[in-house]
Each structure stands twice: as structure tokens, then as C-alpha cells.
Amino acid sequence: MQALIQKIIDAGIRAPSGENSQPWRFEIKNGEIYLFNLPERDNSLYNWGQRGAYIAHGSLLQNMEIMAESEGYGLNFSIFPDSNRPNLVAKISVMPPTKTPGNLAEQIFQRATNRKPYKNYKLNENERRDLLNSENELRTKAKFILVEEKNTIAELGSLAGNNERILFENEHLHHFFFSHINWDAEEDAKKSIGFYLKTLELPPPVQLGFKLFKHWSVERVLNKIGFPKIIAIGNGKLYGTASAFGAIIIDGDSPEQYIEAGRLLQLIWLKLTKHGLSLQPLTGILFLMQGIKAGEADKLSTPHQELIKQIYNKIQNLFGTPGTVVMMFRIGKADPPTAKSSRLKAQIS
Q1: Chain centroid to CA 135: how far?
Q2: Which ranges constitute the DSSP H helices of 13-124?
Q3: pLDDT, tens only, 80-121
Q4: Are strands 244-250 and 324-332 parallel, antiparallel or unpaired?
Q5: Domain 2-153+240-332 belongs to what architecture?
Q6: Strands 195-196, 181-182: pairing kind
């Protein structure tokens, strides 16, 4: 059983997380797995109330369940089982199988964020049906919306690109971003946390200039000539090279709902991987909006807060939902990513 638990955890930690922060640790007691959040791993403006981290934990739990099923077992999750221990996300028990095993275990280790330009490709009916069936498979209240209309894709891409504008115009976000970049393979392997520069898929000349951009004194000068707006336009066009945009919607704001959203995200992402398709999360604006809604966005200027509100409302309208848009991502066919960021080993006690 110990070997099985280790295999399940090793699959779980292949889940995506904001800034590759990997905000989790595990305890094993009497054959049960206790999953804990590590809030100190990500206290950024993009993770108000640890909501981004909870999405990551949901993805981790989905990975664990898929791996357990592939080994002929099921898992029972008790989410936030102890109100006196808020960082205890889940108690997990290994159970006899409860449904037909799926076939996505291999994709857990293949899945990656792909920031390359996407090719001109239209989803086929089998791919579309498989993605849209994800809600029913999980029996979740989280909703998945798929948009394939080209003009809408272009507009969503343009809106998403404004995250980079705000990031480069805001000193706090600018420092946060560049402090999480690993500049070469050696640094990435040593830290095993944060962004490996090559995963950003920057052209070689931009990679060289990027080291200058990390200095706020340089960036402040560039801001005066509108450089962040140029970046936003360029990235918006890149994001518009997609076969579709997807969104995950919840009808509230509870941590449990973000866990559900993370599970749904991961199932969709693994299915896309199996179909040979790529995904890139574009959630910056959505996550910043959560802090604004909570009245905890004092590190954002008033103009930036107003811009974020306007963009978020447009995103809601384009997806045709009054619910909370917690995840947005572009989908398409692309060449494989140049690199993957390194990962920490599971922290188990």
C-alpha cells in the first residue's frame, strides 16, 4: 500500500500551480493521505485568499484520482475536514474502485503549459464532445464554456493581453514576476520552483533584453513611452492564435468551489493532451479581480483597478455568464513546448 500511495502522490504533484509554486505538502497516517496548503509559497496579488492555490489543489486531487483508478483503486476525498486546521485541504482514503478506470494516467506526466503560437486548426467533433462531457464525468457544479467563434477568440486574446500591461506598469507585480524567473537550466534545476525562462517561449533577442526589464528603473523609463501597451497588443495577438477559448465558471466564491474548478480544469487539460492539443492558462485579470472584489487591492492603482473591472466584465459577457469566471485558457494545436519547469519532490511526513 505504501508504494501505491507514493505513486498516487507522485502523480498528484504533477498538477499545475501559479508561478509553479507547488503549494502543498502531505502527511500519511494509518494509510490515509492528508493534503496541506502552504500559503507562504504564494502570497501574490494573483492569489487572493489562496483561491489560485485551491485551484492547484483541485488539479492535484484530480491527478491522484486518475492514477489511483489506473491502478485499480478509488479515492475518497474529505475536503477541508477540520475547521480548526484551515490549511488542511483534504483527507484522502484509498478505496476499492467505484467506476470504470479511465485512461489518462500517462497524460499526467506529459501535460505542460504551451505558450507557443497556435496553428490554424479547428476542433473536430470528437474532441469537442470529449471536452464538453467533462462536467458530467466529474458530476461537478463547476461549468465549462467553450468558445470557437474567431472574432470572440480574438477579442478574448486582446483582453487577456492586458495582464502583461498591468504587470509591467505596477512595481509590486513587476518585482513579483521577475523574482520568480529562473534564468537558466542550472538555476531551474536547483530551485525547482518558479518560471524557467525558456518556458515563456520568448524570441532569443527578447530573452537577452528581458534581463534589463527586470530592473524597475529601466522599466519605469519604458513605461513612459508606452512599452507595456505594446507588449499587451503583441501578446493579445499571440493569444488570438487559438482554436478555442475555454472558461470555468462557479456560482459562488467558496474554497470548495475553487477545488472543484481545479479538478475540472485538470480533466480538460489531460484530455487535450491526449488529443495532441495544447492549453495556456490566461488567468491574470481574473485573479486580480478577486482581490478587487474583496476590497483588498491597495497595491493596484485606481486606474488599474478600473481597467481590470472593465476587462473582467467584458470577459463575462463574451462567455455569456453571470457566474464567477475563475479560469480562462486558450486551446489549440502547437509545436511542443521548448522546455518544462523543474519540480520539487513531494514533501511527505
Answers
A1: 18
A2: 51-70, 105-108
A3: 999 999 999 999 999 987 767 778 999 999 999 999 999 999
A4: antiparallel
A5: 3-Layer(aba) Sandwich (3.40)
A6: parallel
